[in-house]
């Protein structure tokens, strides 16, 4: 991602305006000033913000009960997900929803005369964020699709063969027990033997380190 270090720097400083300037747009805080203020509380460690806008989404099961009809959400594109925040009108509560990038097929934008909308294709459905600032929608769609491509191009970490071997042993034990080839006592004894072995402990540490 171009300017990735800058995005990281501005995210750590909670400088959302600088991120928007980096994207050659003005910060869009319409109806989301409270959400922008609490955004740092919802970011995960090392999560980087690429772009922000505000838009209208249909009320969901988790929407604030004090809001009616459609809600104005803060829409945040990060290195990990799409993050949506919605602050209640009469209370200090904030609803949050997110969509991890591994669920996203593609992101598109549509610009009208004054406003625009973002369409996030999840395969089974399309999430629409409407009434966004016109200039922001193409920026978010472009950055999202570039980042999705980068994530897709990264080589997947292969599990060490020894880890697969140990897990296969446990799987085979489960199957043998399920078809009656091993008694309950035999299954428990064999499982304890595998889990308590030095080999399995080493393989477990290797697996955790690969995550």
Mean pLDDT: 84
CATH architecture assignment name of the largest domain: Roll
Biggest β-sheet description: 4 strands, antiparallel
CATH superfamily of the largest domain: Pleckstrin-homology domain (PH domain)/Phosphotyrosine-binding domain (PTB)
Q: Segments where pLDDT lies below 50 for 5+ residues?
A: 60-69
Instruction: Estimate what percentage of residues fall within beta strands.
Output: 15-25%
Order of helices and strands: HHHEEEEEEEHHHH
Number-wise, the strands total 7
Number of helices: 7
Total number of domains: 2
What strand line-up does the widest sheet have? 1-2-3-4
- Tell the overall outline: elongated
Model description:
By secondary structure, this protein is an alpha+beta fold. Helices cover 42% and strands 25% of the residues. The chain has 7 helices and 7 strands, in the order αααβββββββαααα. The protein has a 4-stranded antiparallel β-sheet. A hairpin with a 3-residue loop joins strand 5 and strand 6 (115-121). Helix 1 runs antiparallel to helix 2 and helix 5 runs antiparallel to helix 6 (184-195). The protein is elongated.
């Amino acid at each position: 991602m171009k300017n990735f270090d800058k995005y990281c720097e501005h995210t750590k400083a909670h400088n959302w305006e600088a991120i928007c300037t980096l994207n050659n747009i003005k910060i869009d805080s319409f109806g989301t000033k409270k959400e922008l203020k609490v955004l740092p509380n919802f970011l995960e460690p090392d999560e980087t913000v690429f772009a922000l806008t505000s838009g209208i989404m249909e009320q969901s099961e988790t929407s604030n009960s004090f809001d009616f009809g459609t809600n104005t959400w803060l829409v945040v594109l990060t290195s990990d997900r799409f993050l949506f925040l919605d602050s209640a009108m009469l209370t200090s509560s904030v609803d949050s929803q997110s969509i991890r990038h591994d669920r996203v097929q593609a992101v598109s934008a549509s610009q009208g005369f004054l406003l625009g909308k973002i369409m996030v294709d999840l395969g089974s459905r399309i999430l629409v964020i409407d009434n966004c600032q016109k200039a922001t929608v193409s920026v978010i769609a472009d950055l999202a699709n570039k980042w999705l491509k980068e994530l897709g191009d990264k080589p997947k970490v292969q599990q060490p063969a020894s880890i697969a071997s140990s897990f296969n042993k446990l799987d085979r034990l489960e199957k043998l027990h399920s078809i009656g080839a091993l008694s309950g006592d035999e299954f428990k004894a064999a499982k304890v033997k595998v889990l308590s072995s030095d080999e399995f402990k080493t393989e477990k540490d290797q697996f955790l380190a690969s995550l």
